[in-house]
């Protein structure tokens, strides 16, 4: 079973909470890109995109490699296993709650039809 730490979850979900960072991950899922290419793609300054990349790097979602004057970004080795376990646990809870609510709604409908 995957063990997760609150700090790691907080950091990962904070990183994923931003639309630009999610977009960067989507873009890097298609292939590696330089910082400049990402800045152009997201219509941002180099400083702005570097801040986003830094946050993604801290969580292991992205890694960078400098070759000459070009810093290339690629997906990191973070597999989001801990985050998936956390999400699944809450998904199961919510599924049970919605199933119970559905039962109550059906019972109320039947009572209404019988009256």
Brief synopsis:
The chain is α+β, with helices and mostly antiparallel strands. The chain is 67% helix and 12% strand.
Could you describe the 3D structure shown?
The structure is a single chain. This protein is α+β, with helices and mostly antiparallel strands and 115 residues long. It has two domains: 1-78, Winged helix-like DNA-binding domain superfamily/Winged helix DNA-binding domain (Arc Repressor Mutant, subunit A), CATH 1.10.10; 80-115. It contains five helices and three strands, in the order H-H-E-H-H-E-E-H. The protein has helices at 6-16, 19-30, 35-41, 46-58, 81-114; strands spanning 33-34, 62-67, 70-75. Strands 1-3-2 form a three-stranded antiparallel beta sheet. Strand 2 and strand 3 form a beta hairpin. Helix 1 packs antiparallel against helix 4 (46-58) and helix 3 crosses helix 4.
Secondary structure layout plus pairing:
Layout: H1 6-16, H2 19-30, E1 33-34, H3 35-41, H4 46-58, E2 62-67, E3 70-75, H5 81-114
What is the CA-CA span between the terminal residues? 51 Å
In CATH, the topology of the largest domain is named Arc Repressor Mutant, subunit A
The biggest beta sheet reads: 3 strands, antiparallel
Estimate nothing, just give the exact number of structural domains.
2
What structural category characterises the helix and strand content?
alpha+beta
SS element count, helices: 5
């Amino acid at each position: 079973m995957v063990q997760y730490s609150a700090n790691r979850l907080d950091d990962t979900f904070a990183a994923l909470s931003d639309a630009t960072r999610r977009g960067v991950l989507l873009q890097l899922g298609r292939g590696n890109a330089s910082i400049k290419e990402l800045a152009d793609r997201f219509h941002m300054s180099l400083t702005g995109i570097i801040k986003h990349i830094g946050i993604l790097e801290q969580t292991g979602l992205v890694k960078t490699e400098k070759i000459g004057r070009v810093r290339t970004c690629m997906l990191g080795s973070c597999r989001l296993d801990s985050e998936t376990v956390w999400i699944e646990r809450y998904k199961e809870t919510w599924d049970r709650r919605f199933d119970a609510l559905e039962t109550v709604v059906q019972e109320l409908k039947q009572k209404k039809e019988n009256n």
